[in-house]
Each structure stands twice: as C-alpha cells, then as structure tokens.
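the three lines:
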Amino acid sequence: MSAVAAPSARRITWLRRRRALGSGWREYRRNTPGMVGLVLLVLIVLMAIAAPLLADPAGLHAVNTVNNPAWANPAKFHPLGTDHLGRSVMTQVIWGARISLLVGLAATVLAMLIGSVVGITAGFFGGWTESILMRLTEWFLVIPFLPLAIVLAAILGPSIQNIILVIGITSWPFPARLIRAQVLTMKERLYVDRSRALGASEWHLMTRHILPNVSGLIIANTTLTVPVAILSETTLSFLGLGDPSRASWGKMLQESFEAGALTQQAWWYYVPPGVGILLVVLAFTLCGQALEEVLDPRLRDRRE
Amino acid sequence: MSARYVSGKVLGSLATLLFVIAFNFFLFRVVEGDPVANLFRGRNLSQSQRAALTKQFGLDGSTGEQFVRYVQQTAQFNLGRTYTNNQPVASEIWDKAGPTIALVGVSTLLSTIFGVMLGIAAAWRRRTKTDYAVTSFTMTTYAMPDFWLGMLLLTAFAVELGWFPVGGIVDPNSDATGLAKVADQAKHMFLPALTLTLAYLGEYALVMRSSLLETMREDYLVLARAKGLRDALVRKRHAVPNALLPVITLISINFGFVLSGAIAVEAIFSWPGLGLATYDALQGPDLPMLQGLFLVFSAAVIAANLFADLLYGYLDPRVRTS
Amino acid sequence: MSAAAEPAAAPLLQVRDLHVTYGVRAGAIPAVRGVNFDLAVGETLGLAGESGCGKSSLAGALLRLLPRGTQVTGTVLLDGEDVLTMKPGRLRAVRWTELAIVFQGALHTLNPVQRIGRQIGEAISLHSPGTRGGAVSKRVGELLELVGIPARRAQDYPHQLSGGQRQRVLIGLALACEPRLLIADEPTTALDVMVQAQVLRLLDDLQQRLGLAVIFITHDLSTLAAVCKRIAVMYAGRIVEEGPSHEVFDVPAHPYTRALAGAFPVIGDPAFRMNPSGLAGDPPDPRELPSGCPFHPRCPEAEEACTSADVELWPAGPSRRAACIHVPGAPR
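prediction for all of em together
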C-alpha cells in the first residue's frame, strides 16, 4: 500500500533517460581523443558564431588600397596576409568557417533524414517495400559521388541551398543501409513481438521501440557523416560550383588556385583554409568515434 | 563458383548500367533545354535550319523515341559532340582516358601496398606507438582535402625546390621519344601520384588493420601457435591471407571510385586526363562532354564492382565451393 | 578406461602451484589459483567444472598459449622439463610433438580458407622439415583414416565437413606428431548426443591403442566417469576434489561435485526423477571471491566456519582428496 503516488510512466522514462545520458557523458569524458575533438569543435564553432566580433565583414569585399595591398604576406600584413584582391585572409578564414560548418551540418541532417526514413521503412516493413528501397539504395551507391554532384550542381546552379541539397541527396544511401541493418536486428528482439501481442500499432512500434534504439546509431553516424559533407562542399566549391557570393574555405582554395597563388608562392592564401578544414574534420571524426564507442562498448575493444 | 553465380552478377551489373544510362538521359533532359539554341547562340537560325539541326542532333520525336535513340547511340559508343570544339565526345574521352588510368593505377598500386603494410604493422602491434602513429597519420591524411595536399606538395617540391615540374604530362619544350619520353612522363606523374597515394593510403591501412584485428580473434590462430609455428609464420600464413579478403574487395571497388575522385587533383597538376576534362567541361558547361564523362565514370564503378564480386567469389573457398 | 602398465617412472606431467592471472586495465583477474596434479604416462585425467572455473585457462597455460599480458606462475614439468621457463625455440619444438591440444570443433577452429589436408600437413612439415611432399600427404591420409575419415577428404575445406567430422579432423591433427600427452578441451560439447558417443569412443580407442596420456576437459561429469581413470573437479580456479573417477562420481566428497553429478539427468533412474538437483546461483566473479571457501554462498551444507577458513585439499579416502571441512579428518 503506497502512501505516495507512484511516478507516471513518462516520468520514469525521463528519469531513466537522464541517468543514461549522465553515465554516457561520464563514459565519453574518459575517451581522450573524443575530448580533444570536442574541445576543438567547440572552439571552431565559437569562432564561427563570433565571426562578426572577430573580423569586419567589409574585409570580405574586394579592396586594393595602400592599407590592403594585394599579395601581402603575413610579415607585412598581419595576421595572415592578403589575397590577390587585397582582402585579408584571416577575415575570410573566420567567415569561411560559417559556410563550411553550415553546409556540412545541413547537408548531413538532410542525408540522415532521408536515409533514416528509407532505412527504417525498409527494415521495418520488409517485403516488397524493402526490396524496392534497397535496390534504389544500391543503384545510388553505384553512381560515383563526385560526377553526380557535379552534374546536379551544374543543373541546379551555384547557391548555398543547392549545394546542401546536392550533398544531401548524394549521401543518404550510406546511413540508409546501416540503419536498415540495425532495424532488422531490432525486429528480432522479443519486445517488439510482445508489444505487438499487446495490440500495439505499427506507428507505435516504430516510434516508441525502434526509433529510440536506432537513434544512438543515427547520432553517431551523423557525427561521422559531417566530415564527409564538409569535404564534399570543399571539393565542389573548388570546382566552381559553390555559392559565389559567400566566402567558404573551399572557395578560398578555388580562388587562390585560379589566381595563381601556387606559382606566386603565396602560401598564406591556401594553407590556412586547408588547415581549417583539416581541424574541423578531425574534430568531428574524433567525436564521432568516441560517441560510437560510448554507445557500443564492443567497438572499443575492437578498435584496440 | 557456379555459372549461376557469375551470370547472376553480370546480369545485375548490366541492369545497373541500364539504370545509369536512363538516369543520365533524363538528367540531362532537364538541363539541356534547347541544345540547338545553346550551340548556335547569337546566330539567327531559320526555321528549316533549326529543324535540320534538330534532326541532326536526334532531338526530334517524342521523349520515348529520343530515349531509345539515345540508348542505341550509346551502345554504338556515339556520345554526341562537345560544345567546345565540336569533336566526338567518345574520342575525346578515349584520348584522355589513358593518363587517368595510368595515374590512378599507379596510385592505387602504391597506396594498396603501403596501406596494407601499415595496417598489418598497426594491428600486430596494437596499442603500441606504431599503432598510434599509423592511426594518427591515417586520420590526418583522411581529414585533408586531397587536392589541398596536392597544392602543398606542388608548392614544396615543384615551386620551392624545383625538383619536379609544375604540371602537365610532358615537357612541352622537349621532343624526347621512347624511354626518355616515358621518364619525362614519370617525372610529371610523380607529384600527382604521390598526392593520390597519400590520400587513399589511410583508408586501406585502417581497413586492413581492423580486418586483421578481427581475424586475430579467431581460434584457428591459437591452433596455429599450438602447432609450434613462430609468430611471424602464424601471421603470414594464417592471419594476413584471411584478413586480406575484404581488403581486396575494397581495393577493386575503390578503383572505380578513385577514377572520378581524381578530378580536383588532375586540375591542380594540369594532368591531361578525364578529371581535367571534367574540370574544363564545367567551365562551359559543355553538357555533352559532362554527360559522356558521367556515363564513363559510372560504368567504371559498375565494372569495378562486378570485378570485385567475381574476384571475391573466386578467392573465398566458402563461396567457390558452394 | 584402463591405463597402460603401472608407471614406475616419474610422472609424465607434474603441475605445481600453477597460477594464471589475466591482466586487465580494470584489475587483475585470477583464473587459476594454485593447482597441483600429476599425470602418469598413459593415464587419463578428467577435468570438470562450470564455465569460468579456470579449466580452459589451465589447458592454455600448459603450452603457454594464453594471450600476451597473461601472468602464468608455478612449474609445469613435462618429462622433467619446465614448460614455463623453456626458451621460445624449445617451446615451439615441444608443442605438438610432446603435448597436443584437441580444441572444440567450432567452425573457425580450423582456418576456413585452407584445405584440411594442408593444415594437418603443416604440423608434420614443421616438425619433420626434411619430409617430402609425397610422404606428408601419405601421413595425412593415414591420420584421417585413423580417425575414421576417408583420405580423399583431405582436399576439402572445413565448411564442407560436418561438426562431428571436424572434431575428428582436430583429433587426427593433434596426433600428427605422435605426442605422448593429449589435452582434449571440450571436444564433444558442441556435438549432438549420437555424434558425441562416436567421438568419445574414438578417443577411448585411440588412447588405448597409442598409450596416450589424456587430460579430458568438460563440464559434463558423467562423460568423464565413463572415459577417465581419475577425475579432478575445479571451482573458482582451484581443484576442489580429486580421485578415481567412479568413486568421485558415485560417492562425491565435495558438495559441489555432488551438485555437478546430480545436474545431469540419468535417464530411467527413478531416484533422479524424484530429486533432480540443479545448482542455484552463478559461479563467483574471480575479482570478488567470497571469503573462506569460495563455494559457500551456493553450498547446501555451508556452516559458519565455511565463511572464514580457507579450505585446502584434504585426504578423503585412498588416493582421494577434497577441499571441504565436512571431509572426515579435515581440521575445523
């Protein structure tokens, strides 16, 4: 006979989730590479957010004055010199972070959304649905990414939304396959059958049982897909398919290449954006791997 | 490996190829609008001239008829003519395929050999400095854009040090032939090949490493040691061959993808291959050329996947004897 | 099973104070905690216990096959030579020629991409380097026939054999270099009952014909009773009872043995049907062993004294020992 009303089912779930998150965070903290990645990531994101405070956006537009000579190396014009139009490289690097991060994240979210829907639907419903969806996935996997992205970008025209769209559309097959495999494993679990026996609807099963268990995989996979998206954006921008009105690290590489920075030996123009990309990708990769290990401890032993 | 297995895989590949061709067709349908007008921009064409040209380009008739004609033409390797210089796309691609295959072939060979060696070293000495060094190195090379690495190498070794040429495939001033010409080409290929090798090295190392780590858990390795084999022989005879199987498949598949992945690198080094052709075609955009290149790249991936499947089926006795 | 002629010479195998500790970041795990036993030429010893009691670790330790980082101390005298202090070259020479292991015949115990003939031949070529290919194939064929497999199956891959056949191949492989001591680690566990009986009969037959000494490891006590001369029962890394097999099985002196003996249904025995004694609980975590006798939390006869006193193997009859304070004559 309880004197206190028992907590509702919802509250119990919430408390359990919070405790799981707490222990997950402690687990993550122990992973050194993961922490390094996280710190790096936070720093870069802060830099991107604080861009207006750190660098005057006017510096992004063409200038070639006595104060801002073209091709000034870092010794003459700190901190990172100027490009062929006299613009400060540092300003472009700081502002370019925004585009790289934005496109990387948005495209990944799009890819994960499509991939999750396809993967969960295929895995859950099986039969004809699954066959058709998986065939479609395989076909998309066969088409090499870069040519497809180039063609799509050439068709749609260079803008930031289109780049996000292109990368998202070309990246969904990978998560789709993984998620479907995970859903298939989930289906084997008893509680799905038990739930069905209790009369649960398909929707309920999908959202209450399958989704929470697949979400871990989705999160880890998302973190590992962002670097791919960022590298893709870099390549596409380099090839001239990026948004011409916004500064991005890929665009800096394109402009530096076309302006002949290589032969001019103006390394300060193209080294910093590359370093930026390197750091961002590393940060996401380290975090993603650490997340994977936290969610699936078996991976930890396997990696070692 | 039964005939059924082989024919199944081949038919599957053909089906995928057909899908790609159809996809290609409809994709460019969306873009092209009126290619006749595009080509002859600025010139006034009469109705009859326009009609004649439309017929010449095979643009008359319904979409269905055009599609059938497109498939027929593709089967005969007729991929249209480029916008830029009105040459047959097919022959342009054919000319430029050689340098790309050479570059990608050499890079794949080198990155495979070194990648596998590094992966073995890392797995066999896991958790030691060797392992951490290899893993860190591969993660770093993976994290950088491959063409950026090319830019760095170009700056360091060609511009600053002058050890290697800055671009192209041969020295335009020399008229060397035979062996001297090959040597010249090799010198030009060194930096782009180095770039691609370093870019893909990491992936092979990591895959070999994890494949070997999986294999090392297997019981038959304990049995091999129990028989009295030295560690090195256990590794060489039992662990590595089994761990190599998935890596070999990966290499075959990757070859198809790297063919198109070298676009930016070829651009940096002005390497006259399919990648540079794509880069140039983008400037127009030279749509027939892009369409032809897209088809060729996709076909390469399909072919590489088929080869990987058949190769695996041959190498793994569990598949071979079923 | 009968033993060979009564051994007058020193025992073939002498194990003294064997400890096996797995080094793990979280803390050391003691899998074997001081095991002593002898094995004479041609003698058969059964080693029984639940999973995790240390019996497989013990087997692995005898040939130093445990993973790097595992600490093994004590002495393992094989014909007077201490295996644990052998130089690597000597150890490799001794492996398979003096002492061989028959592992459980799971699918990946044999290399799945090599033909079984080649895997057997490898052992032969390794220890008789000069042997020509033809002679090796001949010997491989003989070994296969010895275990009841047609010689032409040497061309097959492991996945083309049934579980029982794979187990036979492993037995044949173990005999390739004519060892004097065979360790059979759960050789019949994964097989169905009919095949189990066949394999056991094969082992019995070979043991008698070739005069092998055998250590037979399993969790099935009833198998050991039929197949071995002596039985040792392990619990939590130590031997808790030892003696002639029929005595140990029919009149167990240790409560754990009693439970093990009762846990396997004897078909047709009405007494068993009336009182099937399964054993409640799980084996203890080696990192957190109970005080005193490690069995006391699950023991139906536990007393106050069991929680404090550390038990040793005390004599419990002629050539019998048991580690329980209830054994008559044990100090309390």
